[in-house]
Amino acid sequence: MLDIRGLHKVYEGSGRRVEAVRDLTFTVSAGELVCLVGPSGCGKTTLLKCMGGLLTPTAGEVLLSGKPVSGPPPGMAFVFQEYGRSLFPWMRVGQNVELPLKQKNLTKARRKELVADALESVGLADAAGAYPWQLSGGMQQRVAIARALAYEPQVLLMDEPFAAVDAQTRADLEDLVRGLWRERGITILFVTHDIDEAVYLGERVIVLSASPTVVQEQLKVDLPDERDQLHTRVAPRFAELRTHVYEQIQAAKRGIPQDAVTKSNTPPLH
Ligand code: ADP
Ligand code: MG
Questions:
Q1: Which of 56, 50, 62, 69 is closest to 25 using CA atoms?
Q2: What structural domains does the chain harbor?
Q3: Residue 90 has what DSSP assignment?
Q4: What residues are in contact with ligand 1 under a 6 Å CB criterion?
Q5: pLDDT-derived band of residue 264, with 50, 70 and 90 as boundaries?
Q6: One Pfam family from the UniProt entry (predicted)?
Q7: Predicted pLDDT of residue 181
Q8: pTM for this model (two decimals)
């Protein structure tokens, strides 16, 4: 579904040159939930912007269903970290969710249906008439998720979407994402700097090195499909996986390749 080949991005301007992403190659299959984890400043947002056609890579390419991405592709939706800035304060929640649908060739009745369905899916069926600033941070981020869902994307890119909400809300939103993914079969690429979040959510975790960024490792998360905050996070396997990812990130910081940390691609079972 998504094919990232040799992606390289250098920011240039006003006498500064920042190599944000050195060389990234990975794929995401249709219907997968993949988490990308890497330290702050390693180029995660840069990567997502290149994938979403919002930035042009310096070299390399992004393919969506085999076609090169050159501008925002119709089948893709974004959820950004800064929900406070991503909703229009002068529009009611329902209008915010409906806005991107206006680019699609849909009847007003169908748009209303999609908005109602998306708000219902995120547990905000009653909030359509409220303004974003009347809602809590967690609820605002649910609105942003609803807006993405209503668009009926094939691919959903999420950029540290829960970094600014409190721990309890964050746990609820993580479960919401897994639930929606299982119900709707969307392909999700979820970016986070939080190792535990990546392991809890993902079917696969791609570990990025510090900037200039390369893929340090890809790891299959062999936890059961049914996950819950209480049991999954205390499971021995969860601890093994998170420790492994942590070690990889530490090694990446010191510039040690993956093979020198562990021989195999998956952490050892005991
Ligand atoms: P992350 O999302 O992983 O925290 P970013 O993609 O935001 O990382 O940034 C990666 C690197 O690129 C950082 O060093 C950052 O300062 C730099 N960078 C990001 N955006 C720009 C820009 N528009 N111009 C110049 N440098 C940038
Ligand atoms: Mg970022």
A1: 62
A2: 2-75+156-260 (3.40.50.300), 86-152 (no CATH)
A3: T
A4: 11, 18, 20, 38, 40-46, 211
A5: very low
A6: ABC_tran
A7: 94
A8: 0.91
